[in-house]
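Target chain:
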Amino acid sequence: MLRVTSLGKSFGAFDAVRDVTIEAAEGELVTLLGPSGCGKSTTLRCIAGLEPPTSGEITMGGECIFSDRKGVNIPPERRRIGMVFQSYALWPHMTVLENVAYPLRQQKLSATDRQKRALNALELVGLAGASASSPGMLSGGQQQRIALARALASECRILLFDEPLSNLDVRLREQLRNEIRDIQKRLGITAVYVTHDQSEALAISDRIVVMDKGRIVQIGPPEALYARPKTRFAASFLGNVNLLEMTEIGTAVSDPGWLRLSGEDGEEKRAPIGDHASGAAAGNRVQLGVRCELIKLMAPGEDVFVGDNRWEGTIRASIFLGDCIEYEIATPRGTVLKAKVPPYVRFKAGQAVVASVAPQDCFIIRD
């Protein structure tokens, strides 16, 4: 449905977007994820036609809407794109219904058809009963639903979301992201979603595009990116992770799919070799990635899961977070691991513990 090829956008000598290539299939929701200034919103604005790219090509449904080589740049109003902004962008002097119906004037629809489409869109977002209200009388979540209804009413080919939930509180953010995903799936509409929130990206996406400094770092389904990131940046940006220095010993004799590693404690660790088979060699220095929430903590002498990677240490600090407790564990050699465990797993500062994690839940970073 959407194809962006070798997209570049420069502001003077600054390259905000460099050689970005992404695709979104029919009915797919693709999220651009990264820190502020990584180029994700600029990429979205180029797709919408709000920023003219410096280079590259954008096609939608097989139609070229931008190409520097071909000299094509279709204006935004002819791209049939619906866009939902962070700031809602509603007109305070208009009613909810008038806000949703206003962009339909450009399509030269009759007043009756405009009202029908607008009411249908408001019905989709659960605000049909507020059609005569002023947007200023409604909550932030309701105002963002109005903005979504306005985008849907235009019967666009693709929906673009630019940090749409950033102004909302945590509970409302979770509720509205689920509603957006539900509507997008029910309508089968293609969507590109921009956020810096990793949990939002993991919850809402079919695929995630991790960006940094104007470039794509990694693309993949949420589960794959979380379980097997390829760089330190991707690993750290998608969840809480321990990156531990290790030395390769070699592959397991009984199963070459496993990489044997030696850490500072001298105990052997294992991890799936995955895509790193060609680079594996004894003596290489790598990092073992261990997700904080996948670590199990227990007192010494308790049964440790057979075959787990394990570390002995003492509790250095703890933070109670309600649904979990985050512990810092200091090993005898000075390494500090972070673990997030259920709130009923209680330890005191200075208490000896064993941290363990299943080898299949670990990953290798070579950059």
Summary: The first helix runs from residue 40 to 48. The mean pLDDT is 91.
